[in-house]
Sequence to fold (77 residues):
Amino acid sequence: MIKITHIEPRHDFSIDFTFSDGMKKHVDFKPFIGTDKLSKPLHDFTYFSKVKIYDNGRGIYWPNEFDFCPDYLHDYV
Fold:
């Protein structure tokens, strides 16, 4: 089971990830930021940088509960 062990949000609306298998990945989140209720707040970098890792490492989330699972970020993005 892949887990996220570390994240580093960047000013260009991307996040650097480290996963439990040692993989490091840079993911651009601009394509996921739209005008809908969940993703629109991410247009503000102050809000974007509030991203957290779930306690069990099984995803990332923002205060409004917009989230991504580690498998998707690790394997498909």
The domain at 4-75 is CATH 3.30.2020.40 (NE0471 N-terminal domain-like). The CA atoms of residues 27 and 52 lie 15 Å apart.
